[in-house]
Amino acid sequence: MENKGKSGFNIHKEGLMPQEEMLEVGNKKMHLKIGIPSENHEVESRVPLTPEAVEILTGHGHEVRLEAGAGKAANYLDTDYSERGGIICDQRKEVFATSDVLLKVSPPTPNEIGWMKERQVLLSSFQVFTHCKEKYIRSLMQKKVTAIAYETVRHKDGYLPLLAPMSAVAGRMSIQVGAHFLEKEAGGRGVLLGGVDDVEPGHVVILGSGTVGSNAAQMAVGLGAKVTVLGRNSKRLAELESLFQGKIKTRQTNRQNIEEEISRVDLVIGAVLVPGAKAPKLITREMLSLMQKGSVIVDVSIDQGGCVETSRPTKHSDPVYEVDGIIHYCVANMPGAVPRTSTFALTNATLDYAHAIANKGFARATKEDPALKEGVNTYGGKLTNREVALAQERDFTDIDKLLK
Predict the structure, then answer these.
(1) How far is Cα 316 from Cα 76, in angstroms, rounded to an integer?
(2) DSSP-assigned letters across all residues of 272-330
(3) What is the pLDDT of residues 246-282, one digit of tens each?
(4) How far apart are CA 94 and CA 22, in angstroms?
(5) Whole domain around residue 271: which residue ranges?
(6) Highest mean pLDDT among 7-11, 160-164, 212-216
(7) CATH number of the domain that 235 lies in?
(8) Residue 57, CA distances (Å) to 14, 77, 373 in order
(9) CA–CA separation, 152 vs 149, rounded Å?
(10) 291, 308, 329 — which closes off a domain?
(11) pLDDT, tens digit, for every residue of 296-341?
């Protein structure tokens, strides 16, 4: 099984270059050490690269170091990586201390940041608005780490290439988990989303018309549910109506429409994403009283703070809680529940960027790719992302001034 990203895994072979020249390579050839530490498998099961992707990088002149057990939760053995050229390290600290570029899925812990070295490039999720607080950012700045966040790598049209694969997974999963928690034994109303002959199907309301929302709609329609998508972009809503050929209803997002829809809903999917900002609170605590007891909310927006006032992050081991008789599912890393699928999907996105940074060096790769530049949160001891700076009420430095 092999999935290919936009580059088709076509990585150009390069030669040898000392690490200290990594950020200033220009057109020179180089050899980099790429590190993949193990995640905390209690909360994160994905790994940023498949063994096949590691083989591509090692086969083109780079060294990939993985902590022992890095792929275990995604059902990859250490030998799956070592047989493809990966070097297995027993100590997590060694991976952090000896790598030029670090690839992670979940944000690094404070201890892990302490193991990092100056000018090291980190490509990872930072969960900017739920995890990455002011003190956390400051520690990355003090280490002069070049920190690139999955959630802030963004094209001019707003497309988020490193979030999109996981958004697709989360959108599809949202219907799957929502259907489960609608079952009586799971605490729900006892509703089958698809219904049966002569029985009304369940009603799904999706707040948001982006990648999460469209994938959730696809799954819900496939089950035979009644689906309503609410969004702010009229053009996008029209596109979805055309795509689903009348099998969904669309409405503008406003308080009146939301209240009307949730008063007869079985499952609400929070699929709101405002790039670089916290999700707006579209459902208030007061509005829960309009919903039927045993209804379910799956707030996929929880990584951006959640679009429901009563949402708070949960874990896969304890994913739901109840407020006013409404079941809330707010797992902050939903794709971690299907790590095998998610790892393939994530690799398709991360490999292109790992390839560019490894072969060109950070400075050149960033200058040539505006989307990658948007993703840089810290560089040279400075905070460089406008949205993060605004969220934390701090000053920032335009990275173009630092790359000259």
Answers:
(1) 20
(2) ---TTSPPP--B-TGGGGGSPTT-EEEEGGGGGT-SBTT---BBTTB-EEEETTEEEE-
(3) 899 999 999 999 999 999 999 999 999 876 678 899 9
(4) 19
(5) 166-329
(6) 212-216
(7) 3.40.50.720
(8) 10, 18, 22
(9) 6
(10) 329
(11) 999 999 988 899 999 999 999 999 999 999 999 999 889 989 999 9
Judged against a pLDDT cut of 50, whether residue 25 lies above it is answered with no
Q: Are 290 and 399 found together in one domain?
A: no
Q: Is residue 237 within 8 Å of residue 257, measured between CB atoms? A: no
Is residue 288 situated within a structural domain?
yes
Average pLDDT in the 370-388 region? Answer: 91
Residue 79, classified by CB atoms within 10 Å of its CB into exposed (0-12), middle (13-18) or buried (19+), is: exposed
Phi, psi of 39, deg, nearest 5 = -90, 170
82: number of Cβ within 10 Å: 15
146: left (phi over 0), alpha (psi -120 to 50) or beta: beta
Which tokens is 190 given?
A: 């006892």
Residue 369 has pLDDT above 80, yes or no: yes
Residue 212 · residue 268 · CB < 8 Å? no
Question: How far apart, in whole angstroms, are the C-alpha atoms of residue 37 and residue 33?
Answer: 13
User: Measured in Å, how far apart are the chain's first and last C-alpha atoms?
Assistant: 43
Among 329, 354, 369, where does a domain finish?
329
What is the distance between the alpha carbons of residues 290 and 320, in angstroms, rounded to a whole number?
20
Name which of 42-56, 97-111, 343-357, 383-397 the model is least confident about: 383-397
**CA separation for the pair 71, 78 (Å, rounded):** 7
Q: Which two tokens stand for residue 326?
A: 């409404």
Residue 196 gets which letter from DSSP?
B
The predicted model scores a pTM of 0.83
Identity of residue 53: A
Pair (177, 297) in one structural domain? yes
Q: Which helix (H) or strand (E) holds 376?
A: strand 376-379
Q: What are phi and psi of 206, to 5 degrees?
A: -115, 120
Give yes or no: residues 188 and 324 share one domain.
yes
Residue 38 token pair: 């193990």
Q: What is the pLDDT of residue 85?
A: 95
Dig out the tokens for 40 from the structure. 């905390």
What is Dmax (Cα atoms) for the chain?
Answer: 71
Strands (DSSP E) along 171-301, which ranges? 203-207, 226-231, 249-252, 267-270, 296-299
- Indicate the number of domains in the chain: 2
